[in-house]
Design a protein that fits this description.
single chain; 65 residues; mainly alpha; 91% helix
Amino acid sequence: MNLALTLLTTVLVLVIALFAAADAGKLARLDGATYPTALTRAAIVFTAVLTLAAAVTAAFTGLVK
C-alpha cells in the first residue's frame, strides 16, 4: 500500500511539473521569446516545481517523526 501511494504521488508531482513547464514555455512564446529562451524558462519552472515538492516532503517528514 505504501509503495503504491508513493509511486502515485511521484507520478502526480511529475505530471504537475510537466504541465507547469509547458504552460511557462507557451506563455514565454506568446510573450515573444525565442524557442531556446522559452525552453529555458520551461526548464526553470520544471526544476522549481520539483524543488518545491522535495522541500514540502522534507518539511512534512520532519513533522511526522
